[in-house]
Amino acid sequence: MTTQATPGDGDAKARQFVTARIGGQLFGLSIDAVNEVFVPEGITPVPLSAPEIEGVLNLRGRIVTMIDLRRLLHLGSETAASMAVGIESQGDAFGLMIDDVGDVLMLGDAERDTNPSNLDEDWARFVNGVYRLQEELLLLLDVERVLAGVGQGRAA
Amino acid sequence: MDDLLREFLTETSESLDVVDIELLKLETDPNNRDILNSIFRLVHTIKGTCGFIGLVRLANLAHAAETLMDEFRNGRPVGGEAVGLILSSIDRIKDILAAIERNDGVEPEGSDEDLVALLEAEVARELPDIAFGAAPLAVEAPAPVPAPPAEERSLAPGEVSLDELERIFRQTEIEITLPARQVAPDKEAAPAQKRSDTPTADAGSVATQTIRVNVSTLEQLMTMVSELVLTRNQLLEIARRTEDGDYKVSLQRLSNVTGELQDVVMRTRMQPVGNAWQKLPRIVRDLAQELGKQIELEQYGADTELDRQLLDQIKDPLTHMVRNSADHGLETPETRRRAGKPEKGTIRLSAYHEGGHVIIEISDDGRGLDIARIKSKAIANGLCTEAEAARMSEAQLFRYIFHAGFSTAEAVTSVSGRGVGMDVVRCNIEAIGGTVDLRSKAGQGTTFIIKIPLTLAIVPALIVEASGERFALPQSVVLELVHIRPGSEHSIRRINGRPVLCLREQLLPIVELGGALGLREAGAKDALAAPASELIAVMNVGTLQFGVVVDAVSHTEEIVVKPLAAMLRHVAMISGSTILGDGRVIMIVDPNGLAQHAAAGSDKLGHTDAAHGAQAAHGDPKTSLLLLRAGPQGIKAVPLSLVTRLEELQAQDIEELDGRPVVQYRGALIPLVYAHAQVERRESGRQPLLIFSDGPRTIGLVVDEIVDIVETDLDFQLASGAPDVVGAAIINGIATEVLDVGHFMAAAFGDWSEVSRPVGTRHHRLLLVDDNLFYRSMLEPLLKGNGYAVTACRTGGEALELLNSRHDFVAVVSSIGMGEPAAGELDGFSLAEAIRNAPGRADLPIIGLATQSGPDLIERGRRVGFTDYVAKSDRSGLIAALNEFIRNDHREAA
């Protein structure tokens, strides 16, 4: 059992991550990528779009495209996702639908493990390393790869 | 690129546009010192800044031009030649600037010695001593003598000699003292007066009242105002519901201010339409010289305001139309004189507002459109019959000039007459929700009338409901709303299962909005099966009218268009989104997408009869199809495996051989075939080209656009009567015609015989064995198109395995002369033998496909057990053989 890096103990390579739970699994998103966390309301579906696109909503006058992470990661969805992480990429605003948002963690680069080789291929596309926390594993979600992956699984 | 350079680029290109206009004025009014000075100042500034930033090439050129300009200032008469020279220098400067912008701030390689030499030669040219009487400068400051090369080092561009510096100081002094003199008021008053009496684009510098604001700041402002408006609407909604009136006055005030703010912010997006035609005087001047005509360009209403975004989009169409007017609208001076008209032709541009639209008219007093020639051309192009043409009104006939490939110019000039113009103009204008029309009178001239909405950011829309969701339909394309009830005068009928709307004398195709958007689940009730009461919005897109069935119509609203994220922009039926008053986002339906849907007739409702026939197809491997557009209607497809390569055809590479178009491809000439009679024959630029190869034979199939590549169960719904189409299948929910590559091969080489195809029964499964991918890919759709289910494989071994694993094959179609089989593999003969030797397969028909015929081959074929054999290219023979043998053996099974 390794101990966690103490925040701010001079380790310059430590970064902050927003943690989020999706279908029971804990994920971490780099805090630089996250603009805000909000409660999605009034989502309008976009006809004929990729299945991972939940729809769009109006967030203070901006059109935000909502991505259903559970569908993208092939996780079951017994309840509706209740929160969303707001990110921005190439001038467009996106919301990643999650079940719950957790603490912000300071994690050192040195502690990060690479993806286990038997990680599901669908997940390996979006996951950029693993942290072993005391309670459970935290998978780092690569936001850009998530966005690039939307609509790609459609042909399969 | 650093900010300084970017600033310089924007500023300079603006200054250059002004110089263009001023120079033209100077040409007609050579003694106007105000103009001369203002041009000189501009060129001087450009030169100075270039030297400062280190753009050597530009500075060099600007310097040479400035020297010549300075001569004019010093009293040299202004001649057309010299002005032409300066104009071409300005053009070169523009080219270099554009290159700098592209290269991220680096000056392009190259030399301007040619122009510089010409400019210097012009300066050095001795002129007869003409004194510029009114110019005191001419006396005080003699023309700069070329610096004596003896001791002094030569000057770097941008540097000035001491003499010159001194002279500039002297001039500056004069300019400063000028206001004290009598001349001063004139000088100040002149530009102001000019503005008021000429409606031309204001070229004078009155820039002090404006500041430069980044466009993105304006967009942001716009977004925030929209949000403010939404919030206001919500507040008003709440206020309506409550009795408490204390805050109502304040709320009313807030509401008014918000409205005014919205107006003002909208106005920041507006620009005078004159900005779009700023370059036209120059173009007309150049054209007039080139064509030997005298042309006057009149401009009215240049200050009419229009959304910035729209302005950009009408620039090209406007330029094109003005060129057209100059080229074949106006006659040559002699012709005009003979017709009793003034030698100088006039092109008049005018712009004005009319009911939420901007109208731009381009008129000329030329010869007018030749109605007889349009008529004969329309008939020759197959656009209408002679009888139809005779019945048409002039206005209807005129509109043919907007058709693709239609030009009535007798000769193609470098300017126009290639027939690629007016249809593009129409498309560009329609793309921004505008319309274009024309009036013409023989001998008196032609007027084009462009009508465009004030802005694209806010469009009037009809809010409708379909499958429980609300959608916005742009109102510009909605002609009328029709309510169908039992016993009402309009009705929904079915033609061959497809619903159509009988509206007065017209039969219009119908699409159901929910269905077209994929919202109606398969198996849901067929809304049009028994139409009790339907709401239909009749829409007009391009030349197609069609009905859109909606569940409810809510209201009309001016909506603020919000673009969707990049990953949603490819969605065919959706063009954008908007936020309604209640804060909810709704989708704006793309009328063009709906029109395609209507034109393709792929509404799923129409296919219910055909659908159940498709059962046998499940479990078939997927076929990769290349989707493309060719001709006016719908999507077409070809099996991707048949396509050797995708290329881009350069228009100028097309050659003619024996009257047929050919192109050089990899060292050989290949024939070009157009995938549809109405595929655009582009005269310039590129066009997608599909290369198909079968052994030594290669053709190029020209199409309009490559749309997509999809993997799909190739499941033919309808066989086709058309020779160039194998059949129609639903691909991504859109009826798609699968092109028959064989037909195009035949069209190019003339030996792939034509086929008429009876439709077989879908439950018959064939095993197709051919080691040649080309034949396999070609035959598979053919067989499927004739109603057979097909399993294809490459080798005899695979065929035997397949025959052992499933037992529903009714026949085997196998190539006889399969190439050299690999060790241990079966060729066609061995395969037939193996099949015949297996128990229970004695009767299985085996059709042999022979690449070359020969009695010994046939004899050998019969011996080993082929039921029949046909030549590989004889596709009708193959189908006939299959029909014959399968009828004999398996008909009862169907």
From TrEMBL, chain A:
Gene Ontology process terms (BP): chemotaxis; signal transduction
Domain CheW-like intervals: 14-152
Pfam families for this protein: CheW
Cellular component, GO, one term: cytosol
Cross-referenced SMART domains: CheW
InterPro entries associated with the record: CheW (IPR039315), CheW-like_dom_sf (IPR036061), CheW-lke_dom (IPR002545)
Highest taxon of source: Bacteria
PANTHER family on file: CHEMOTAXIS PROTEIN CHEW, CHEMOTAXIS SENSOR HISTIDINE KINASE-RELATED
Protein name (database record): Chemotaxis protein CheW
Source organism (scientific name): Ancylobacter dichloromethanicus
Automatic annotation (TrEMBL), chain B:
Domain of life according to the entry: Bacteria
The name this protein goes by in its record: Chemotaxis protein CheA
Annotated function: Involved in the transmission of sensory signals from the chemoreceptors to the flagellar motors. CheA is autophosphorylated; it can transfer its phosphate group to either CheB or CheY.
Positions bearing Phosphohistidine: 44
Membrane-spanning segments: none
InterPro entries attached to this UniProt entry: Bact_Chemotaxis_CheA, CheA-like_dim, CheA-like_homodim_sf, CheW-like_dom_sf, CheW-lke_dom, CheY-like_superfamily, HATPase_C_sf, HATPase_dom
Top EC class of this enzyme: transferase
EC numbers on record: 2.7.13.3
Phylogenetic placement of the source organism: Bacteria, Pseudomonadati, Pseudomonadota, Alphaproteobacteria, Hyphomicrobiales
Regions of compositional bias (Basic and acidic residues) in chain numbering: 184-197, 325-343
